[in-house]
Amino acid sequence: MAAPPEVTNKNLTGKYIMNKSLSDDSDDILKLQGLSWFKRRAISMFTLTLSVEHYTDEAGEHIDVEQTLSGGIKGSNEDRILDWEERGDIDDVLKVKVEEVEDEFLKSGWTEDAAAEDGLVLAVDWSDTSKTGMEWKAEMTWGFEILNGERRHARHLKFTSSNKKDGPILKRFYYDYIGPL
């Protein structure tokens, strides 16, 4: 389902479901992050739903994401403050103008409102090499794209790993808006 025009990067609040038929497969990334074949296979069988609450308080702008897999299985929660401060295992997050994003893949394809006024959400996450033995970096931009004539929430991911020498992995993930929280 297309996202309504009032849902923007200024207010992402709502429920979204990953559209697997439009999204790129993430198995190669999960493998480079150290997930076993069994876990990767299980993940591929489920559908991901995001419940997003976007708000501002005295600490700044927040985007809290609750992930649920089909069958009501709780996934991880992402509680983010958009201030580029590193918070342990939480990635760095900031709202940026499209022209501030250096990588062409991460900054291309967005709707005009993202380019003109709403900006993009930019999240950067690094592996905890001491825990996993893996070394990787994930850079992701969030926004909206027009795909097949419909406005959809999208995320562009650039993934690099010390175990992959032939350049980054580039992926696009698309979400159907299914309604307010």
Automatic annotation (TrEMBL):
<dbReference type="InterPro" id="IPR053037">
    <property type="entry name" value="Pericyclase_pydY-like"/>
</dbReference>
<protein>
    <submittedName>
        <fullName>Uncharacterized protein</fullName>
    </submittedName>
</protein>
